[in-house]
Each structure stands twice: as C-alpha cells, then as structure tokens.
Design a protein that fits this description.
By secondary structure, the protein is mostly beta strands. Helices cover about 0% and strands about 45% of the residues.
C-alpha cells in the first residue's frame, strides 16, 4: 500500500537525486522487470479467458488494468471506471484509489478497493463489479456498488485499507484488510451482495501484527489455500519511499481461514510471528504488497512491486516502482520459497545433475558471492569451510567455522529449474539461494 504515516515519512533520511552506488552484485533475476510494468504499485493478477490481467494502484480515476498473455509484457488497458462515485468525493478531497483486489466468480469479477486520508485510519473499502467480464474489453461493463466497510479515528482502531478476498473450502467468502492501525483483520462477506455479511456488527478477527517495529508497520495481505492450509502473506515495513522503503514479505499458515496463522516456529502472527519469504536484494529494493495465485499451468506465482534502484522516481526519491512476477516454490514442509522471476531468462545457465559447479550464493538476501561445489564434496569460497551432499533434488551444505566452539550452519536446499537454482533455509530460518553460473 502507498499509505505511509507522515511521521514515519518525515523520519526517513533524505535520499540524493542519484543512487549512492550502482555497483550491486545482483542475484541473478532480481533485477528483471516486466515490460510495461513501470509505475505499478500494489498489483493483483488474475487469469481469465487465457489472459492475465493486472489491477493496481496508479494514475487516473481508478481501477487501472493491464493485460498480458505471458506475464512478461503488459499492455495498459485503462481504468475500469472513468469517474469517481459521489459517495467517495463526499468523503475525500483527493482522487487516489489504492490497492484493488479482484475476486473471480465465474464470469463475474468483483473489484474491492480502498481510499484513505493520509496518515490516519479514516478509510473506506468499496466495491465495483463487472457482471460479464470480457477479456477482449477488460474495462467495459463495470459499475460501482458503493461502500463495503469504513473505519473512523474516533470509532475503530483498525484501518479499512488493502482488501484481500478468498473463497474458503465451504464456499464462504472472506475479506482480509488492515495495516498499521492495530494490524490485519478478516471479516466474512455476503456472497450475494459482495458486502459484509453482518454490516452492523462485522466482528473482524485480528490475524496479524508486527510487534517488532514501532507503529505496527505491516499491510498488504495476500491469502491462498494449498494442501489443506491457508497461507497469509503480509508486507512488513514502509512503502512509497523508493529505495528508502523497507517492505519485505512474510508469511504464516493456518488450517482455518480465520486463523490462528503461525510461523515455522509455531508463533502466531497475531503475536508477531512471521516467516521470511522475500527481502531487498539490490537493485530490487523493498519488494512487497504481493498477490498470490495459481495459474492454469499449475505454477504458483507471486506478483509484487519493488523499487528499482537504477531509476529515478520523482523529486529527490530514487527507486521507481516496477512490477515483478516471481514463481513460488514449496519445501517439503509446505512452506513457500522464492523461485525465479518469470521475466528472467535463465535458459542459458548450466544445469544438470549432480550439483557440482560454481554458484552465485546468497544468504538472507545479503551480498552475493561465488562458491564452488567440488566433486569431492567440499565447498570452496564463502566465509567458512563447507561440505555439500546431494540426494536427488535435495541439497545440503554444512558450513563449519574454524574457531572452536562456533556454531555450524546447515543450509537445507531444494534444486529447481533443471538444477540451475537452489533455495531453502538454514536452521535460523534465513532464506538461502543459489544460481548456477558454471558447470563442473
């Protein structure tokens, strides 16, 4: 979301007009961007009629939509509504609509959106609907259905922004929402109207808070269901500040759509629990406000915006918002891991089995360095001596410090993309990634 409190924005240091450095050891693929995906914030993508449609925060009245056949190149189609409804102009002097979410119900598409007064929880979630969506004319046939939910500083502690909807296994519809003001919540919707099932007493359930940072900075919920679990993705940190932004994607899961969602250690997200999925990896700064979908080919995809550190945005802010669509992979315990962006062409990278060779290696989205997995099982390069072992598509690297009594680190990894990429976590939960750059 673009909502950043004025105090938080003022507290951030001023950035120069040019980036401090462009000498980034970028992890392969992290700098890939969609063609036609510049100036995209808060993307949500749906697949309808064999095409992909990206709705996002952007310029114009509202409901900015792009179309694509391959997720790599996007065509700007326009806005789903050309004028602002009167009920919105009565509440807000500005014309900025944020963070649309699309619920596909057969041929009917519902678009949930939000507006807010900057830095407050005076916010609304509204609904527009297209009864018969035509992929050839994606901006046709939409009508506004008005207010879904409202938050007011003198009445509610939560904040009605960043709607995210899902249909559960029983056919019930739910809407997640919220941000800095008290956390992320979920409330039930009426399938017939698309609005709250209990408008007079919605009884939203708290599902996530960021307890580790002042002001509870988290927002941008995305929810999916996989193998009997619901996964709640959220963005920790600040957005809208270019390279000064601090967004990063976290996740938890639950057997119930209303939680409790827990992290890998069993801590509930309402108590601050979270599992890392994606962080800054320059020039990819502050990836966040993601969506999650499974497309018709069976791929799990995670679209989001990031701030491209190679490009000026506006004023003194460096880091233009751009769209990236990354594949999600899943480990043996059913936790999501970042795959490669669909925009990145890794077809020329060496692959094959076994994993011996030279790899661009990264731990916890930090500096990228080369390591070499030797045929004898040793590891050359890196900051510590290591040994590696492969069992099918599973790869383990043990790092043993030379100092007596120091902790040994173990990376539990999975090989993907024909052996050209590995990803997993170490025992602390940090994400470990590698891209093969040379064969044995």
């Amino acid at each position: 979301m673009l909502l950043v409190t004025m105090l938080a924005a003022m507290a951030l240091a001023q950035a120069p007009l040019a980036p401090a450095t462009t000498d980034w050891s970028a992890f392969p693929g992290d700098d890939a961007v969609s063609v036609g995906g510049e100036n995209v914030h808060d993307p949500t993508i749906v697949e309808v009629g064999g095409k992909y449609f990206c709705f996002c925060t952007g310029n114009g009245p509202f409901g900015l939509v792009r179309s694509s056949s391959d997720l790599r190149s996007w065509r700007l189609e326009g806005n789903v509504l050309s004028t602002f409804p009167a009920w919105l102009t009565e509440r807000y002097p500005h014309r900025s609509v944020w963070a649309p979410d699309i619920l596909v119900l057969g041929h009917t598409l519902r678009m949930y959106y939000c507006m807010s007064n900057w830095g407050t929880n005076k916010s609304v979630i509204g609904l527009a609907q297209c009864d018969l969506f035509d992929p050839a004319h994606p901006t046709a046939g939409w009508r506004d259905l008005g207010l879904v939910m409202e938050s007011r500083p003198e009445h509610e502690t939560y904040n009605c922004i960043d709607p995210e909807t899902i249909v559960d296994e029983q056919g019930r519809q739910w809407m997640f929402f919220g941000s800095y003001f008290a956390g992320i919540f979920v409330a039930q919707l009426d399938p017939a109207t698309g609005k709250l099932l209990h408008p007079d007493d919605p009884q939203p359930v708290l599902v996530a808070r960021n307890t580790s940072e002042k002001g509870d900075p988290l927002e941008g919920a995305a929810v999916c269901r996989r193998d009997g679990n619901y996964y709640l993705f959220v963005s920790y940190g600040l957005a809208g500040q270019g390279v000064r932004s601090t967004y990063r994607v976290m996740v938890g899961r639950s057997k119930s759509v209303t939680g409790p969602f827990v992290d890998r250690d069993g801590v509930t997200m309402a108590d601050g629990g979270h599992t890392n999925v994606l962080k800054s990896s320059p020039p990819m700064f502050s990836p966040g406000h993601c969506d999650v979908l499974k497309d018709s080919s069976g791929r799990w995809l995670m679209p989001y915006h990031f701030y491209d550190g190679r490009k000026h945005w506006h004023g003194d802010v460096w880091g233009r918002p751009v769209l990236q669509v990354r594949e999600l992979l899943w480990d043996e315990q059913g936790w999501p891991l970042p795959g490669l962006p669909v925009e990145f062409d890794d077809s020329r990278a060496p692959g094959g089995n076994p994993a011996a060779g030279t790899w661009a290696h990264q731990a916890d989205f930090g500096d990228v360095g080369d390591i070499r997995l030797m045929p004898d099982g040793s590891v050359r390069g890196g900051t510590m001596p290591g040994r590696w072992h492969q069992n099918g598509d599973s790869l383990t690297i043990d790092w043993s410090p030379q100092e007596a009594g120091s902790q040994t680190w173990t990376d539990h990894l999975m090989l993907a993309y024909g052996g050209r990429y590995y990803v997993g976590r170490n025992q602390s939960g940090a994400v470990i990634r590698g891209a093969k750059i040379e064969g044995p």
